[in-house]
Amino acid sequence: MIQYLQHHKIDKSQWDVLIEKSEQGQVYALSWYLDVVAPNWEAVVELNKAGKYKTVMPIPWRTKLGIRYVLQPLFCQQLGIYSLKESIVAATYQKFWAEVQQRFRYVVGYQFNTDNQLPPQLEQEYTYTLYLDLNKPYQEIKQHYTRDRKLNLKRSQNAGLLLHQSNNLEPLIQFFKDETADKIYGGVSEKAYMLLRQLYEALQERGLAQLYYTVDAGGRENAGCLFTVWRNRIVYIFNAAPSHGRKQNGRTLILDHIIQKYATQKFILDFESPDDREPDIVHFYRSFGSQTMLIPVLKYNRLPKSIKWIRELRMRLVQRLRG
Q1: Does pTM surpass 0.70?
Q2: 154 pLDDT exceeds 50?
Q3: Residues 227, 236: contact at Cβ < 8 Å?
Q4: Dihedral sign, CA of 15, 78, 288, 176?
Q5: What values do phi and psi take at 81, rounded to 5?
Q6: What angle do CA 266, 267, 271 make, to 5 degrees?
Q7: CATH classification of 2-123+296-322, choosing from 3.40.630, 3.30.420, 1.20.120, 3.40.50?
Q8: Are 281 and 274 in contact (CB under 8 A)?
C-alpha cells in the first residue's frame, strides 16, 4: 500500500532504519539531514503487509505566492526512491511520481539518485555527478590523474603546505564569500550560509564531518574542503580557497589526502559535480580520474498562465539588472 505522508506523520525511526539498510541509501535521505536542508519535508511511502516502510521517497517543498512547489534543496544533490530491494520496478516509480503529481502543480526539478533507473514513460532529463572508486591501491588511482593534476599536486607539496583538520567552518565560508559568491548567478543569500552552518553542526554531532584546511609557509589557511563520510560514500560537500590558495593548489593536496586515506577500501568519492555551466570545476574533478554518473531529473510546470508570465517577467528583470 502506498501513502503520502505529511511531515508530522512520518515515523523517522522507521525511516532511518530503512535508509541505513537500503541498497540506494545516502546520507542525504536520512531524516535528520532532511530536517536541516528541507524542514517540513513530506514523503511517499510503501508499506509491507505488517505496516512497515519498505520503499520511501522524500519530498522537499516550499511555498511562494500561496503555491506549494517541489525544489531540490541546497547541499542535497540526490534524493529519489530508496528501497530494501536492490531493484525497483518501473511501476513503483510511476506510482510514487503520480502521488507527487496529485499534490503539486509545479516541480522546479527533483533529482533522483544514481541507483534509480526511471522507466522511459517518465519524461526525464539528466544532470550528473562524478564518482571516483577508491577500492584500489593509491598508486593505481594516482596513475589516472591527468598530467596537469600530477604536476599541480607536486607544486602543492613543493610549496610546503601543511594540512590539518579543523572544527571551525568560518574561514571556509569567508573564502567562499570573498572569492566565489559574486560569480554565482543571482548571488548567495545569508540564509545559505546559515544552512551550511546548521548542516555542519548536525554532521559534527554524528561524527560524519571532516573539515580540512591547508596552511602555507606564512601560517595562513589558504584552502578548505568539507566532506561527509557515511556508509561507503564520501561526499565533497563544500570547498573554497582565496586566490593565493588556488595558486598553491591547496584543494588538490586535500583531495589527494582523502584519496590516500581511503584507498583500498570500499568507498566512493562523490565530487558532487556541478553541471556544464561550470566547465572549469568539472574539468578539475575529472582530472582525478573520476567517472560520470547520471542523475535522472523530473520536472514540470502546471501553473496558471498568469503565474508563469509573472515568473518569466521576474527572471528577465533579474537577468537585465545583472547584465
Answers
A1: yes
A2: yes
A3: yes
A4: negative
A5: -105, 135
A6: 160
A7: 3.40.630
A8: yes
Secondary structure (3-state) at 262: helix
Are 2-123+296-322 and 130-289 the same fold in CATH? yes
**Which of 58, 82, 85 minimizes the C-alpha distance to 72?**
58
Q: Which residue has the cell 539531514?
A: 33
Tell me the CA distances in angstroms from 51 to 190, 255, 288, one per residue in order: 42, 44, 46
Domain ranges of the chain: 2-123+296-322, 130-289
* CATH (residue range 130-289): 3.40.630.30
| Highest mean pLDDT (candidates 8-22, 171-185, 309-323) | 8-22
Element (H, E) at 61: strand 61-64
Q: Name the strand (E) or helix (H) holding 121.
A: none
Average pLDDT, the chain: 92
CA distance 222 to 242: 6
Q: What is the pLDDT of residue 65?
A: 82
Report residue 323's pLDDT band, with 50, 70 and 90 as the boundaries.
Answer: very low
Contact 111, 297 (CB under 8 A): yes
At residue 189, does pLDDT exceed 70? yes
Q: How far is CA 198 from the centre of its chain?
A: 15
Torsion region of 310: left, alpha or beta (phi above 0 gives left; psi -120 to 50 gives alpha): alpha
Which long-range CB contacts under 8 A does 187-192 form with residues at least 24 apart?
192/74
**CB burial of residue 55 (10 Å; 0-12, 13-18, 19+):** buried
Q: What is the pLDDT of residues 209-238, one digit of tens each?
A: 999 999 998 899 999 999 999 999 999 999
pLDDT at 315 over 60: no
